[in-house]
């Protein structure tokens, strides 16, 4: 049940995120649907390839594809006066998707008895892979690589699950809420990792 709920939350959140980015870039309706679907399922597809899950497993998630399509359609039909607040609540849906999918990916690898390194990679790719593909298709620098702290929260999900610190549904939901809150704080207060620029100013 926890798995299904996290999958549903992540699917809706990332489909909404992808659709809004497509609309910001003035893509047509087909582009909006493609970006919504790719954002929702891209990270899971990459994860499956890397941890040895048949890629065909992606097509067994019929209900989640329908959910993503409905979420994308809803966003496309939203009034403009709601969509213009994307920076306020769009980042929040992205935070929800990050934490939900990072936990889901870590659980996936943990249930396959993969080592800690694979659990962390699965968490990061599932949590941020779709967003990376979304940003690249939209012609943007991937947020996970150059903006506020992002993938670090997915790594923490992988560590918590790999170390068996969270196993019960209540603990997993607590981890979900905690990681979402930290992601919200990181973009609200502009927390950043150290950078070193080679540009000459």
Q: Can you offer a commentary on this structure?
A:
The protein has helices at about 1-25, 30-50, 60-75, 80-85, 85-110, 115-135, 145, 150-160, 170-190. The chain has about 200 residues and is mainly alpha-helical. The protein has one domain.
Q: What characteristics describe this protein?
A:
201 residues; mainly alpha; 9 helices
Break the fold down into its secondary structure elements and pairings.
Blueprint: H1 2-24, H2 29-51, H3 62-77, H4 80-83, H5 86-111, H6 116-137, H7 143-146, H8 151-162, H9 169-188
Helix pairs in contact: 1-2, 1-3, 1-5, 1-6, 2-3, 2-5, 2-6, 5-6, 5-8, 5-9, 6-8, 8-9
Structure annotation, total helices: 9
What is the radius of gyration computed over CA atoms, rounded to a whole number of angstroms?
16 Å
Shape: globular
Helix content: over 70%
How much β-strand is present in the residues?
A: under 5%
What's the pLDDT, averaged over the residues?
87
Question: What sequence of helices (H) and strands (E) makes up the elements?
Answer: HHHHHHHHH
Structural class: mainly alpha
Biggest sheet character: none
Count of separate structural domains: 1
Q: What assembly state would you assign to the polypeptide chains in this entry?
A: single chain
**Spatial separation of the terminal alpha carbons:** 53 Å
Please give the number of β-strands: 0
- Given as residue ranges, the uncertain stretches (5+ residues, pLDDT < 50) are none
